Amino acid sequence: MLKYRGSRSMRARLVMATLSRRAVRIDEIRSRDEDPGVRDFEASLLRLLEKISNGCKVEINETGTSLYYRPGILVGGHVTHDCGTSRSINYYVEALVVLGLFGKKPVRAVLRGVTNDNLDMNYDSWKSCAIPLLKRMTGEAEFDVKLTRRGARPLGGGEIHLSVPLVKALLPANITDEGLIKRVRGIAWSAKVSPTMLSRAIDTCRGVLNDFLPDVYVFTDHRSGPDAGKSPGYGLSLVAETTTECTLSADLVTELEGEGAEKHVNIPEDLGSNAAMILLEEIRRGGCIDSSFQSLALLLTALGPEESCKVRIGPLTDAGIETLRLVRDFFGVTFSLKPDVSSGTVLASCIGSGMKNMARRVT
């Protein structure tokens, strides 16, 4: 049994504990905060893990500051889950896509809650960046994520349908060639607000990006009525595609002045220019994987076959560093990090753990 202290990287700890089938105990969870203990979104994640597995055991003490988790057998199957509004749906999607690969049945999940915010990755960037990455590292083409309703903060009301196929084992990762940026695509979305907001944001965004390349196109997705969820909002998701099929993403969502207020802090022009600058910063950092998906790429690389697996990333983020520590603890995989001074990137290589899906039915 592994023991940790603090609430940092709670999701990653639980996911890796489930994959490695090792029990984990986490103490002193926000023990010095005014509101100590496990947060509601972490408890929701534990309930989701119980739904897709059989035989797992969860124990939380009276104050909520100590958690014991013993994983069960991953089953998968059809799941419907209310994710709440504390974190967006993609907080749970990132856990589901990794766990679903090694289940007994393909995961078919219906998740309800917030689809777009500034705390987690948004649906549009996830579909444009994470799905191609997963297909590249698994060899499976049956990944699918579909948005049926938008859900902005604070009330959410969005819905996402997720499909995750089964794999016998992952492919060896060899993602090292960054390539050059060839085009930028994006989606400007709005819910329960005027669609003219999107045109203003797109014009400002293109004004920034067209100084660097001409092939910039941003689609619009305006929703009203039941498809728009329960709260008004608008945002912009941008994806830069390279000549080697790598993708770098940037997200920005307008913020509300207060709980339940309808006045937005970000005007559309600021939203467009700031989103473009965030994308340019991701491009400046370099690497084949952007900073938001760094942890996912490192985890999939560590789960690969027992041969050399390589991935080129930008400067390590805090989440990336924590992932390196956790894969060493749970799977015994140690990465070799070689900085490239000329490009400012890092080549992360390792010998994979050889993770195989033992629960998958043999046909």
Q: Could you walk me through the main structural features you see in this protein, from its secondary elements to its overall organization?
A:
There is one protein chain. With 363 residues, the chain is an alpha+beta fold. It contains 8 helices and 18 strands. A 4-stranded mixed sheet has the order 1-2-5-4, covered by helices on one side. A 4-stranded mixed sheet has the order 7-8-10-9. The chain has a 4-stranded mixed sheet with strand order 11-16-18-17, covered by helices on one side. Strand 4 and strand 5 form a beta hairpin. Helix 1 runs parallel beside helix 8 and helix 5 packs parallel to helix 6. The chain starts with a strand and ends in a 12-residue tail after the last strand. The mean pLDDT is 91.
Q: Which secondary structure elements does this structure contain, and how are they paired or packed?
A:
Blueprint: E1 2-5, H1 10-20, E2 24-27, H2 40-52, E3 53-54, E4 57-60, E5 67-70, E6 73-74, E7 76-82, H3 89-100, E8 105-113, H4 123-138, E9 144-149, E10 158-164, E11 174-175, E12 181-191, H5 196-209, E13 216-223, E14 233-242, E15 247-253, H6 268-285, H7 294-302, E16 308-313, H8 318-331, E17 336-340, E18 345-351
Parallel strand pairs: 1-2, 7-8, 11-16, 12-13
Antiparallel strand pairs: 2-5, 3-6, 4-5, 8-10, 9-10, 12-14, 14-15, 16-18, 17-18
